[in-house]
Amino acid sequence: MKLYTRTGDEGKTSVIGGRVRKDDSRVEAYGTIDELNSFVGQAAAAALSTGQLNELNVQLVEIMQELFDCGSDLAFADPEGRSFKMSAEPASRLESWIDELTDAAPEITRFILPGGSEVSALLHVCRTVCRRAERRIVTLSDELAINQEVLKYMNRLSDYFFAAARAANAKLGVPDTEYVRSAEVFRKSSK
Predict the structure, then answer these.
(1) For this UniProt entry, which segments traverse the membrane (predicted)?
(2) Beta pairing, strands 112-113 & 177-178
């Protein structure tokens, strides 16, 4: 199989059911998800290399599968009447993971800066690229009907990356770096 087809040499690409410009909102949305997936792969590899974050690696690999599903659901030229891959279950599972990860990290009262450990820094990159992907999906949803479960999942996923970044630092014994000019913006929970 050849990796090049030359069919995109004039600025168009194939989607399921047609061809569109490479800067089409649909391509921007699933292309940003693809970019996110690459960063998630980097974070997963870094998590595995620590020898202490194997469960995080397993979660990130599952997320990579689901990001492919999200991209697939957004790749339809005409999404009406299609059977989608993403359902409500993955976002619900993310909520469970977020709760577990939040409990594994110390409480925060101020904003934190991305970083600490390498894994945490990579997860913060994932969080910000995820937010950009979400913005691209919102733009697309103004133009076309989309699977709304993709949008819900992406919104939850950015929260997951924040919680995972903090939990990774905690597990590795690396403190989060607080934003020193931040007021106390988070209330302490009454567990």
Answers:
(1) none
(2) antiparallel
CATH topology for 23-77+88-178?
Hypothetical Protein Ta1238; Chain: A; (1.20.1200)
- CA atoms of 92 and 137, how far apart (whole Å): 20
CA–CA dist 88, 151 (Å, integer): 11
- Band of pLDDT at residue 3, cut at 50, 70 and 90: confident
Residue with tokens 């988070």: 186
Q: Is the dihedral of CA 118, 120, 126, 127 positive or negative?
A: negative
The predicted structure's pLDDT at residue 191:
53
Q: Which residue has the higher pLDDT, 1 or 163?
A: 163
- CA 15 – CA 158 distance, rounded (Å): 26
Nearest by Cα to 30 from 50, 46, 16:
16
How far apart, in whole angstroms, are the C-alpha atoms of residue 171 and residue 180? 23
98 residue type, one letter: I
> For residue range 153-190, what is the model confidence (pLDDT) as tens digits?
999 999 999 999 999 999 999 999 999 898 888 876 65
Q: List the domain boundaries for the chain.
A: 23-77+88-178
Sign of the CA dihedral 178, 180, 185, 189? positive
